[in-house]
Write a structure and sequence with these properties.
The protein has 292 residues and is an all-beta fold. The chain has 1 helix and 15 strands; from the N terminus they run αβββββββββββββββ. A 14-stranded antiparallel barrel has the order 1-2-3-4-5-6-7-8-9-10-11-12-13-15.
């Protein structure tokens, strides 16, 4: 049967960003906008995800998850044809297994498949990325020594078959409730500090990471070099607002400015073929989510 009681501590294991992510979301729809007024190179992203926990035994859970991205690209003044690069899409499915020990620790593994491309033709092998990760969580809310200030630590490792990244990536995340109205999180892709004005209105300051990667099916030749994929990595800081309709359903909006903006065409060894944009810009993200 579907079981939600332990979901607040379990769900951070199951959905990864292109590098990694911790999320308590069961369902989310979201819109992101990254303009660059200096170059007019715009990026818009529409995103949806879900996670479904299924109890298979005492303290044991299977979790089925899925995610979809549609990324609209608008290039200006680039030395290559953009007719086949007006958008890229990402489809992802994953299956996770979690088990809780008698102590404070919870362990999990997760495997998945991501298909990400400009999809100008049928799916090819280069469009496929495989995911494998393992996690350990210590959540002291279940501890006999729990003092009312929640403390959660996540340690893990993630491997993907993304071209040019043939090594696993570490996952470290720490969350702390240090006051009835204040919490903070240290980790990647997001570090923040949050304040609760009341039950409905929360604000936060954050530093975060946004990125995407996609195969270019027909490739691009620029100055005699072959570009095989397109990627963006952005480090940003900003402020966010959340309005809670209920305890678990909320609207959110974030605005910020990029600290690092790396938007490029690359080959499969991650060598830069052409820099589309590296100038800093504004950042906006908004959506509705249901979480525990």
């Amino acid at each position: 049967m579907i079981h939600f009681k332990l979901w607040r501590s379990l769900i951070p294991l199951l959905i990864s960003f292109p590098i990694w992510c911790q999320t308590t979301d069961l369902f989310r729809v979201e819109y992101l906008y990254v303009p660059n007024n200096k170059s007019d190179n715009e990026i818009q992203r529409f995103r949806g995800l879900f996670q479904l926990p299924i109890k298979v035994g005492e303290g044991n859970y299977l979790v089925v998850g899925g995610e979809y991205h549609y990324i609209k690209l608008d290039f200006q003044d680039v030395p290559f044809s953009t007719e086949d690069l007006g958008s890229v899409q990402r489809f992802e499915g994953c299956l996770g297994y979690l088990f809780k020990t008698k102590s404070d620790w919870i362990f999990g593994v997760r495997g998945g498949l991501r298909i990400v491309s400009n999809f100008e033709a049928e799916i090819v092998n280069e469009d496929l990325i495989y995911l494998l990760s393992g996690y350990a969580i210590r959540d002291r809310k279940k501890s006999e020594n729990y003092d009312g200030k929640r403390d959660r630590f996540i340690l893990g490792i993630l491997y993907t078959s993304t071209p040019g990244r043939n090594f696993p990536l570490p996952i470290i995340n720490y969350y702390r409730e240090f006051h009835p109205d204040w919490t903070y999180t240290l980790g990647i892709p997001k570090t923040n500090i949050r304040y609760k004005f009341n039950q409905n209105n929360h604000v936060q300051a954050f530093v975060g990471l946004e990125n995407f990667f996609a195969n270019i099916q027909a490739n691009k030749t620029i100055d005699g070099k072959l570009a095989e994929n397109i990627s963006m990595t952005t480090v940003l800081g900003g402020l966010g607002y959340e309005y809670y309709f209920t305890e678990h359903l909320l609207y959110y909006g974030y605005a910020g400015y990029t600290i690092l903006n790396d938007f490029r065409l690359r080959d499969d060894d991650r060598n830069t073929i052409y820099t589309i944009d590296d100038r800093n810009t504004m950042y906006f993200r908004t959506g509705i989510k249901f979480k525990f």
